[in-house]
Specification:
The chain folds into three domains: 33-130 and 204-399 and 435-485, Glycosidases (TIM Barrel), CATH 3.20.20.80; 137-189, Oligo-1,6-glucosidase, Domain 2 (Oligo-1,6-glucosidase, domain 2); 502-576, Sandwich (Immunoglobulin-like). The chain is 30% helix and 17% strand. The relative contact order is 0.10. The strands form six sheets. The protein has an eight-stranded parallel sheet. It contains 19 helices and 23 strands. Helix 14 runs parallel beside helix 18 (481-494) and helix 15 runs antiparallel to helix 16. The longest helix has 17 residues, at 204-220. By secondary structure, it is an alpha/beta fold. It binds 1-O-alpha-D-glucopyranosyl-D-fructose. 1-O-alpha-D-glucopyranosyl-D-fructose binds at residues 88, 91, 128, 170, 192, 228-229, 282-283, 308, 312, 349-350.
Length: 578
């Protein structure tokens, strides 16, 4: 138990604990362990199955903790592991104090946490409280009658008031977020699926329930919270009409509701300030100001946020241009140069694989581009989030037929596209490239059947390329993506400069190469990344005088008096004379 009960202890903590956002250390302001770490994200359903039912589980993760530790990462974020009917793979929670049957038991969880802490690995818990499952006891009560004490735990619109104003839903097959419920002749709100009714955050009882749940897990010893879809929690409960087509700009209309900041401040006072934990918000509003207001230390709300601008940039088949990509990352870095902290990520369980999406998954370039992307993630300012499998360059599975998909977003999106008479060839092409199932296929451990993920039938097929792309092969090859990744994590951890150092982009217009420097005290590094499948060059200025090379995904490096030539997807970090 980490609760700080004795005031004197609290004072000592405030003075000495690196968790304290206000702490200043010589040269580096506001140091914190969660800024210095590297997060490894596990989709538990797909990581390792210990009992042969085809679904990954907690015991499977325990079996692989030494592997995880060997990566050098310092924190694990697990997607939801609570009891759930799995309409949205655990993002629909029916009991916030129980473990999902398929994943194991509370004893398994306690053991996992203990084994992690013994290895000095921190645990980040997913907290899904914008909505619950419709099978949660609260909702069962709430829908049972209009005067049930739990009625106001959710958003209800009595039918006698007429149809409520249109609300768009992320996962609904008709795109409708209001669902009529005949039991009480009223509509309930669900921004996600019909089985994910939105909780009513304007009700103080709901907020207390959530803080109690967070305390339950913090008392067990979890070290961080990832707040799912939290920017949507506070709502204008008059539900006014919104402009036509508002869903194209959904965060602006659904995000950062009227009381969000006061709820976050309340959460900070009730929970976060009482434990050695940090919290990260999924989503950061629709402007830089919104993001700042969430994470500026002085406001005492959250410690970190992640924005979607970089991953949303590739949400089409046209892809992205490198100057756009650089501009987005530079804008966010510049805005957080003095205050606040963000996450750096290119993939997660809601996205396709990075090497397929941002790199090149052809046999010729997969390895180089995966190493290049990992170099990028681990050399930027912000806490890096690495999604399982990206350390070995796993690729998209690219399903062809809708019957192969398991994700509710894909299945209901397909139904909606059909009824909207969309161009279904185009829809399927997009799904094939961008679907969330691409990023959810089982971890590829070795060349044995089902890639060593399970002895049963995997819930989602293993990618056919597992005989080539797997952990065992990667471990045996000194030049593998995996060994490059480990090396890169080590370099980051050994260099405060890569964590805290100032970032500056070079040559913004260069269409092929992303070049930037990181500077701290009297040290400076240059990061050079070729994002293309051809050779490309960049001219360095007199200020960028290369002293030594720290890491390179090729054996050679061509630099003639500042005229640098990079091979396809070459990634190099150099120390500069300063
Ligand atoms: O995702 C939420 C989500 O999809 C939006 O918050 C986000 O704004 C959008 O992706 C921006 O482009 C979370 C989980 O990550 C996801 O897996 C769940 O399905 C969803 O919440 C519902 O809990």
């Amino acid at each position: 138990m980490k609760k700080l009960l004795i005031p004197i202890l609290l004072i000592i903590m405030l003075c000495s604990c690196s968790n304290n956002p206000k702490q200043k250390t010589a040269g580096i302001p506001n140091k914190a362990w969660w800024k210095e770490g590297v997060i490894y994200q596990i989709y538990p359903r797909s990581f390792k199955d210990s009992d042969g039912d085809g679904v990954g589980d907690l015991k499977g993760i325990i079996e692989e903790l030494d592997y995880i530790k060997s990566l050098g990462v310092t924190m694990l974020w697990l997607n939801p592991i609570y009891a759930s009917p799995n309409d949205d793979n655990g993002y629909d929670i029916s009991d916030y104090r129980a473990i999902m049957k398929e994943f194991g038991t509370m004893e398994d969880f306690d053991l996992l946490l203990k084994e992690m802490h013994q290895r000095d690995l921190k645990f980040v818990m997913d907290v899904v409280v914008n909505h619950s499952s419709d099978e949660h006891e609260w909702f069962k009560q709430s829908r049972s009658s209009r005067d049930n004490p739990y009625r106001d735990y959710y958003h209800w619109w009595p039918a006698e008031k007429g149809k409520p104003n249109y609300r768009w839903s992320f996962f609904d097959e008709k795109g409708e977020a209001w669902k009529y419920d005949s039991i009480t002749d009223a509509y309930y709100l669900h921004y996600f699926s019909q089985k994910q009714p939105d909780l009513n955050w304007e009700n103080p009882k709901v907020r207390q329930e959530v803080y109690d749940i967070m305390k339950f897990w913090a008392d067990k010893g979890v070290d961080g919270f990832r707040l799912d879809a939290f920017q949507f929690a506070s709502k204008d409960t008059t539900f006014p009409a919104l402009p036509e087509g508002y869903q194209k700009n959904i965060i602006k209309y659904y995000g950062m509701g009227p009381n969000l900041h006061s709820y976050l401040r309340e959460m900070y006072d009730e929970v976060l300030s009482k434990y050695e934990v940090f919290a990260v918000s999924e989503g950061a509003g629709s402007t830089l100001e919104d993001a700042h207001a969430l994470v500026d230390e002085d406001r005492k709300e959250l410690q970190m946020a992640y924005h979607f601008e970089s991953v949303d940039m590739v949400n089409s088949l046209e892809g992205y241009t490198l100057p756009q990509f650089k501009q987005v990352f530079t804008k966010w870095d510049t805005s957080f140069a003095e205050k606040g902290w963000i996450s750096i990520f290119l993939s997660n369980h809601d996205a396709a694989r990075i090497v397929s999406r941002f790199g090149n998954d052809s046999p010729e370039f997969r390895e180089a581009s995966a190493k290049m992307l990992n170099t990028f993630l681990l050399s930027m300012r912000g806490t890096p989030y690495i999604y399982y499998g990206d350390e070995i360059g796993m690729t998209n599975i690219n399903f062809d037929s809708i019957s192969q998909y398991k994700d509710i977003a894909a299945i209901n999106g397909y139904k909606k596209a059909l009824s909207d008479r969309e161009d279904m060839d185009l829809f399927m092409k997009k799904l094939n490239f961008l679907s969330r199932d691409n990023g959810r296929t089982p971890m590829q451990w070795n060349p044995s059947i089902h890639a060593g993920f399970t002895t049963g039938i995997p819930w989602l097929p293993v990618n056919d390329n597992y005989k080539d792309i797997n952990v065992a092969n990667e471990q045996n090859n000194p030049n593998s993506i995996l060994n490059h990744f480990k090396n890169m994590v080590k370099i980051r951890k050994e260099n405060d400069l890569l964590i805290y150092g100032a970032y500056q982009m070079l040559d913004a217009e260069n269409k092929d190469i992303y070049a930037f420097t990181r500077t701290l005290d009297n040290k400076k590094m240059l990061v050079l990344l070729n994002f293309t499948d051809h050779d490309s060059s960049i001219k360095l200025s007199e200020n960028e005088n290369i002293e030594s090379i720290l890491i390179n995904n090729y054996t050679d490096f061509t630099n003639e008096n500042g005229d640098v030539n990079l091979k396809p997807y070459q990634a190099v970090i150099c120390e500069l004379k300063y």
